[in-house]
Every structure is written in structure tokens, then in C-alpha cells.
Amino acid sequence: MSRFMRPALLAVPFALLGVATQAFAEPKTISIANFGDHPQLNAVAEGFKEEILASGLVEGTDVVFTLDHVNFDTTLLPQMIAKIESGKPALVLAITTPVSQNVLNQMGGAGVPLLFSAVTDPVAAGLVPSWDAGAPNMSGATDALDLDAALAFARKLYPEAKTFGVPYNPAEANDVATVDLFKTHAARHGFEIVAIGIDNSNDIQPRIAALAGQADVLYGPGSNLIQPAIAAVAAAANEAGIPLINTDPTLVEQGVIPAAFGVSYDKIGHLAGRVALRALNGEDLATIPPQNPAPEDHSVLISKKAMAALNLPIPAGFDGCDCIVE
């Protein structure tokens, strides 16, 4: 189990939360700052809203939500955050590491509770001082995948594989942390990690193509560069004959790539929503450590069609797993 997977998810009964049992005099604005329009990131926002409203608060009466994104353009982040701050929100949810870092830099002294989500390593990103505490103005929910379990899944699905390729953005703290953790666990599963630095989406096709004969399996991490361009990664991997395991199951469901092993981003939104309810009830974010997905928040999916296209059998160990789609 990776160091990210901690058993200390703090489940607080809603009956203990004042915000769940009393309406606000005026609707409170909860602002959601997203990086871009993407299924995984959108699932965080939706799960977050569902958790808030499941507490008994009524949208339009007790709370109103605003949602903004910058279409993955970091140069637009200051403008988006200034707009959010001008709306005097009661709380801000930031989705992804770049957005969370910019929200903290611009609004960290505004006295507004700030939450991060879909961040792999909030300590390395400078969002919180440790895994055991929040910051005075920030805490939240990570998308910390159990990378040890991901490697175990890859070994079971591809028993003959020796090299495990990980494309990543060297400029993103999440990506670097992910590669380092894969390297920490790789030997135990008989893998050598091949890290592929990708600086922009134009580099994807040639750099993935160059892995032909060098990587036996490829993994698509929850990267803000890789995931928005995952279709290009999949196309390049298929052309190179390298099976791709992604964090998101969408392309597996479509029969484009062989497998997915990842965290449910809807669950990440719900985790962040629980922290938000505590903050709205007046709890100090510094006392709330980052919340991490539990083992049961991970999911597996295998495409029979995509495996067959690469002439790869599905090992008998997956018989009856209820994780295989045509």
C-alpha cells in the first residue's frame, strides 16, 4: 500500500454538523474553480455538490454554487480567481494542483475556507504542511492512487511484462511525485519503470512511439497534461503495440484501450464535500488532515475487444471478476 493510502478518513455524522440542520439566513456562495472541462474533473465537482446537498442544505435557498474553469490554460488562472474572490464566496473548492496552488496564493489571506481536490501530493505541492494536518486556510481531498495496487494489477494482467512506462509532465508536482512512487514500488512487482517526460501535447505521439520495444505496458496517470490528451496517448500506444492502463475507464468502455485502474473521482468530490461541511460549520481547516481515497474507492475495468486487438489474452485469474467488458 502506498504512503498515500491512510486509514484515517474522518467520517463525521451529518447530525453533528450545524450546517446540515439549520438554514442560512442568506444563501451562501460556494465557488468551484476547475482547471478545464474533463469527465474526471467534472465528476469531482458533481460529487462535491451532491455531498453538500445530501446534508440537508437546499440549493438556491441555503447555498448557491458557481463553477468556473480556464480550459486548462494556466495563464487565465489569476483572472478566474479574481472573479471568484469578487463574488465573496463562503468557501472555494479548487480542482487540480495548479488551480489549488493559485487559489492559495491569491486568496490564502482572505479568511475564506479553501479546499483542494484531485491533488495527488498536497504536501509536495505546498498546500498543507504534512499528511497529518491541514493549513490554516486550506485542506481537502486527494486523488492519491494506491500505486502499489496499480502495479499489482498490471502484473496480474500482463504476467510477462518487464518494463512499465509512465508518461508525465516534468513541470507538474503531481506527476513527479507519481513517478517517484511508482519507482518505490516497482521492484516488488518485477517491473522496471520507464519515465517519459512530456512537456506539451505536441510531444505525445513521437515520445510514445519511441517506446515501441522499450515499454511492455503503459500507464496513464492523473496528470493535467496527460488526461486531457489521453485519446492521443491511446492512439500512439495502440500504434506502438503497447497496452495502456488508464486511471479513467471511459476509453476502456469504448473498447479503445485494454484496461483501467483508478480512483473514482466522484468519490473524491464526496470526500471534499465532507470537509466543506465541517468548514462551513466553523471547524478550523488546520485541524483537518488531507482526506484520501479508501481501497474500496478504486475500480478495475478490462476491455476484451482492446486486449484482442493487441493479441493479448485475459489471464484466467480475472474469470468471474465482473470487471470485463466486451
The major beta sheet can be summarized as: 7 strands, mixed
Report low-confidence residues grouped into runs of 5 or more: 1-22
Number of strands: 12
What is the residue-mean pLDDT, rounded to a whole number?
Answer: 89
Using the alpha-carbon principal axes, give the shape: elongated
State the strand order across the main sheet. Answer: 7-6-8-9-10-11-12
Measure the end-to-end span. 30 Å
- Proportion in helices: 25-40%
Rg calculated over all Cα atoms: 20 Å
The helix/strand order is: HEHEHEHEEHEHEHEHEHEHEHE
> So how many helices?
11
Q: Which percent band covers the strand fraction?
A: 15-25%
Given the helix and strand composition, which structural class is it?
alpha/beta
Q: What this model shows, in words?
A:
With 326 residues, the chain is an alpha/beta fold. 33% of the residues lie in helices and 19% in strands. The protein is built from eleven helices and twelve strands. The strands form two sheets. The chain has a seven-stranded mixed β-sheet, with helices on both faces. The protein has a five-stranded parallel β-sheet with strand order 2-1-3-4-5, sandwiched between helices. Helix 2 packs across helix 10 and helix 3 packs across helix 4. It is elongated, with a radius of gyration of 20 Å. The N terminus is likely disordered.
